[in-house]
Every structure is written in structure tokens, then in C-alpha cells.
Write a structure and sequence with these properties.
The protein starts with a strand and ends in an 8-residue tail after the last strand. By secondary structure, the chain is an alpha+beta fold. A five-stranded antiparallel sheet has the order 2-3-4-5-6, sandwiched between helices. Strands 1-7 form a two-stranded parallel sheet. It has a single domain, classed as Peptide Deformylase (Alpha-Beta Complex), CATH 3.90.45.10. The chain is globular. Helices cover 26% and strands 31% of the residues.
Length: 196
């Protein structure tokens, strides 16, 4: 089932999300709905707060990046089948050089900005079967994880912009929160209080 994506300005996007247990109600159905919602909006990641749930879970399918001609063959291979569910994730380390990449967000449509992030991460998480993993990722895989991880921490990519950049996009962000934007996927706007 395709769920409405919560727009910028909704308080749920600013909450630090809570861990869940293995017996979370209809967990497999929720995960399937999150993937379906993400694919419907042509996203590569979706965090539970973006569908209005303040829980520590996000899904990623970074395989569309494998088509990018600017990547090395090794990077393409890493991203080709990169589809993962992260539950109760904790980033243990962020290392390496900070690098810039133009990011967007399904909750903040039509706003894309350059964001600096560390190139490598070490993360602990549970998968959809509640098996525990500690893994290291780098490059675009690490970046997508960091972006979605920020969502469960109540952080948006726009928080990482310079004061000047924030000022330049302020009115666009206000319009998003008021629902004054055209999107081709289902959204829920905080001031409109209805899905479009």
C-alpha cells in the first residue's frame, strides 16, 4: 500500500525516533508498504518518520545509482543490488574525508542542495528478520544511509546547509509545509492536514 509522505514542517520529522521490538505490529507489512511508497515516489531511501511514524527504521534501495556513468565499476557493483532494511540503527563511526554531493529528500520536494558528509561509516542495525549486523559502508551507499539515519535522529539535510543557503530556500520550504507545491506522489502537508 502506498502511504502519504510527510512534508517538511511536520513535527514528526523533528523527533528523535524510538527503537522498536521484534513484535512491532504488522512489521513485515509496514516494511513492504515503505518500499512500495519509496518506489512510487522514485526515491532511493525512506525513513519511518517520513510516513509519520517516530520509530527507528528506514529502507534503502540504492540500485538506481548503479546506472550513474560517473561511478567506477567497483562502485556500480556495490550499488547494483544494494537493498536493505535498517531497524534500530546506530552509526558507530563516521570516518574519511568529507565530500560533497547534491542531495534531495522526498519530504522536501524540488529542493536539492550540496551537502558534505564523511565518506565512510560503521553502523550497527537489525534487518527485517531482527538479525543483528555491524557493517561498514563507503561512498554513495554510506551517504544514502547517513541521510536516512538523520531522519530517525530528527535531522533534515537542509539543517546541514550554510546560513546563507538556508535563507535562500526559506520561502520554498514554507511553501512545501503549506502544500503549495506540485508533486506526483501522495503527500501529507502539516498545515493542510490532508493528503494530496
Amino acid at each position: 500500500m502506498i502511504l502519504p509522505i510527510v512534508a517538511y514542517g511536520d513535527p514528526v520529522l523533528r523527533k528523535e525516533a524510538k527503537d522498536i521490538t521484534q513484535d512491532y505490529p504488522k512489521l513485515n507489512e509496514l516494511i513492504a508498504n515503505m518500499y512500495e511508497t519509496m518506489y512510487n515516489a522514485y526515491g532511493v531511501g525512506l525513513a519511518a518518520p517520513q510516513i509519520g511514524l517516530p520509530i527507528r527504521m528506514f529502507v534503502i534501495d540504492a540500485s538506481p545509482f548503479a546506472e550513474d556513468d560517473d561511478l567506477t565499476e567497483e562502485e556500480k557493483a556495490q550499488l547494483k543490488d544494494f537493498k536493505k532494511t535498517f531497524i534500530n540503527a546506530t552509526i558507530l563511526e563516521e570516518t574519511g574525508e568529507e565530500w560533497c554531493f547534491n542531495e534531495g529528500c522526498l519530504s522536501i520536494p524540488d529542493v536539492r542542495e550540496d551537502v558534505f558528509r564523511n565518506e565512510k561509516i560503521k553502523i550497527e542495525y537489525y534487518d527485517e528478520d531482527f538479525n543483528k549486523h555491524v557493517e561498514e559502508f563507503d561512498g554513495l551507499a554510506a551517504r544514502v544511509i547517513q541521510h536516512e539515519y538523520d531522519h530517525i535522529e530528527g535531522i533534515l539535510f537542509t539543517d546541514k546547509l550554510s546560513t546563507l543557503k538556508k535563507r535562500l530556500i526559506k520561502s520554498r520550504l514554507a511553501n512545501i509545509s503549506k502544500g503549495k507545491i506540485k508533486v506526483d506522489y501522495k503527500m501529507k502537508f502539516p498545515s493542510a492536514k490532508k493528503a494530496r
